[in-house]
Amino acid sequence: MTTNALPRPIGWARFTPRPLDYWGALVGALFLIGAYQGWHPFSIVESWGFVTGAGTVWLAAQNRISSWPVGIVNAAFFIVLFYEARLFADMGLQFYFIATCIGGWYLWLRGGERNAGLVVGRAPRMAYPVLAAAFVAAVVVIAMYLTHIGGAAPVPDAAIAAGSVIASFMLMRRWIENWLVWIAVDVLSIGVYMWKDLHLTAFLYLIFLLICVSALRTWRVELRRREEVA
Fold it and tell me: For the chain, which residues make up each domain, given as ranges?
């Protein structure tokens, strides 16, 4: 079967803002100003995490390479936020996100055939059992470690960490199934962050969830269209 692909990811030179991008930037700027001026109860760090996180997922859903550098900034803010909340697995996960952002940035630009950049496709069948086994093993190991160091929510935190690692790897490889994994991670994350009173972060993950559902639908339509042409 031939390789199925969406249009090439949009780089900096070809970046063309859309009306919704302007509105999102305006809302994000006002929200950050509010954090500095004390207009809402959320901390400056959590506010920056909210804005850059929403931007990262939105740009990735729109097939834009700029999602990767924005993702690096987002991970830096969440390292601080999760450390303060004692969600150590989530904190450590951000370092992995930084690494995958660097790798994804390169692969989307220079990976694939003739260094032309990776294109969107389906995960190979042999990847499913490997990723499932890796998820279970990672949850067990991480949960045991978090229990030992006094983590606030060892098992859910471990599941979020393991699921995010797998989803990030799949996104970096541009496998469409990455959105299904992200949806599951987001649902679990919302519950954990609400329990930890990180309400803004929980709301951010609700936005992530909605964007992931939309992205999955969009990528499926495009992929199906490519399959029909092939």
Answer: 19-229
